[in-house]
Amino acid sequence: MNNKTLLDNLRCIPDFPKKGINFRDVTTLYKNAECLQIMLDEMEAIYKDKGITKIVGIESRGFIMAAALAARLGCGMVMARKPGKLPSTVIKESFSKEYGVDTIEMHIDSIDENDIVLIHDDLLATGGTAKAAYKLVQHFHPKKVYINFIIEIKDEGLHGRDEFEGIDLTTLLTI
């Protein structure tokens, strides 16, 4: 899709969080009302006829558009969070990151086999966090799973999309 307004408003911060990484800062898209509307409109157009019943937002930037889109589509929103942040019984999935191992959790009553689920996060780079969220969602045996990101990074030799072969995955921006 690569909307020019979104690309023009996306801030890049070199050498953050460490030297050699060109960090894509989606906060500049969130703070701009026009960009926020464009992202929401594009995501709604993609998913309005898919029968989505739950959107899983991945902590923490994934919560923003997941909640807004859930309100637009008239479906529920589920949080995939870091350990210890959810108050009830959870299932968890660990994954490797650039700097070690991390874990995300979801409540055990978040999704059921009748749900059609959209997993959303802000950025696809290596795919580790989203793959862990996908594995969590699969524990519930939903009817269908879609995955969406605002940004997919390809220009730095990253191949996060390869983690999701055969899964319906969309992005708004590819860099």
Topology:
Blueprint: H1 4-9, E1 11-14, E2 22-25, H2 27-30, H3 33-47, E3 54-58, H4 61-73, E4 76-80, E5 90-97, E6 100-107, E7 116-124, H5 128-138, E8 144-152, E9 168-174
Parallel strand pairs: 3-4, 3-7, 7-8, 8-9
Antiparallel strand pairs: 1-2, 5-6
Helix pairs in contact: 3-4
Walk me through this protein's architecture.
A hairpin with a 7-residue loop joins strand 1 (11-14) and strand 2 (22-25). The protein is of the alpha/beta class and 175 residues long. 28% of the residues lie in helices and 34% in strands. The chain has 5 helices and 9 strands. The chain has a 5-stranded parallel β-sheet with strand order 4-3-7-8-9, with helices on both faces.
Main sheet strand line-up: 4-3-7-8-9
- Residues in helix, %: 25-40%
How many helix segments? Answer: 5
Report the uncertain regions.
Answer: none
Q: Which terms summarize this structure?
A:
single chain, 175 residues, alpha/beta, two-stranded antiparallel ribbon, 5 helices, 28% helix
Provide a compact summary of the structure.
This protein has helices spanning 4-9, 27-30, 33-47, 61-73, 128-138, and strands at 11-14, 22-25, 54-58, 76-80, 90-97, 100-107, 116-124, 144-152, 168-174.
